[in-house]
Amino acid sequence: MSGYPAGRMGISPRVKSAALWGLVGLLSVLVLVQSYALLATPLLPITGALGLGLVVGIVAGIGAYVLEPRLAAWAADRRTE
User: Where exactly are the transmembrane stretches of this chain (predicted)?
Assistant: First the structure.
C-alpha cells in the first residue's frame, strides 16, 4: 500500500489522478462556454453546456487513466538516454 492518504481509503493514486484530470476537463469546458456567452451570444443552454462538459470530462479522465503509464514509461526511457 502506498503512503498516500487516498491509498488507505481504497482509491489508487492513478484513479485519483484520472478523476482530477476529468474534473479539469469538465470545468474547462464550462469556463469556455460561459466566457463565450459573456463576450457574444450563448452557444448552448446550460444543460447543453453541462452535457458537453460531462462528455469532455469523461473522455479526459479515461484518456488520463490509459495514457499515464505509457507517458511515465516514455519519460523514464528518455531519462536513461
Answer: 18-37, 43-67
